[in-house]
Specification:
alpha+beta; four-stranded antiparallel β-sheet; globular; ATE1 transferase; N-end_Aminoacyl_Trfase_C
């Protein structure tokens, strides 16, 4: 048995060279020990989209997000279709009193309200509505496709 300590932050050349192999060991461990499904979302399947009708990513995914919200509300919370229409979705999860701000010493994405979208096979399967503030991240709401409840996306989102 040979044990190596490699610097992960900032990533050393050894870390970079063994990253994929380490990731595969981690993924196998998660599947065997924690019973994670092999298709559990990964970091490159998560998009942080500013809540703004001016933002092209937000606009292009709005209908898909609103449809997913309605499916979630009707399945999980037993809402009726009029209770979770596009206007209700916009009022509840898109209209925010926070104004977007890009401070020079702040995060690259800036401060404000965001939809953290979880994508799988080209479709959104969950959305975490979050506010990124100077000293915290506030989780406002999470909704997901009930067909993917087995992925425990609420737990995954909270840990992420």
């Amino acid at each position: 048995l040979k044990v190596r300590v490699v610097r992960s932050s900032p990533p050393s050349s050894q870390f970079k060279a063994t990253f994929q192999e380490s990731y595969q060991v981690y993924k196998r461990y998660q599947m065997v020990i924690h019973k994670d499904p092999p298709d559990k979302p990964t970091i490159n399947q998560v998009r942080l989209v500013p809540v703004s009708f001016e933002d092209p990513q937000f606009k292009s995914s709005f209908n898909q997000s609103a449809t997913l919200f309605a499916k979630y509300q009707m399945s999980v919370h037993k809402d009726t279709p009029p209770d979770c229409g596009e206007n209700e979705f916009t009022r509840f999860l898109c209209d925010s009193p926070l104004e977007a701000e890009h401070a020079p010493n702040g995060p690259e994405c800036g401060y404000g309200s965001f939809h953290q979208q979880y994508w799988l096979d080209g479709k959104i399967i969950a959305v975490g509505v979050i506010d990124i503030l100077p000293y915290c991240v506030s989780s406002v709401y999470l909704y997901y496709d009930p067909d993917f409840a087995f992925l425990s996306l609420g737990v995954y989102s909270a840990l992420r």
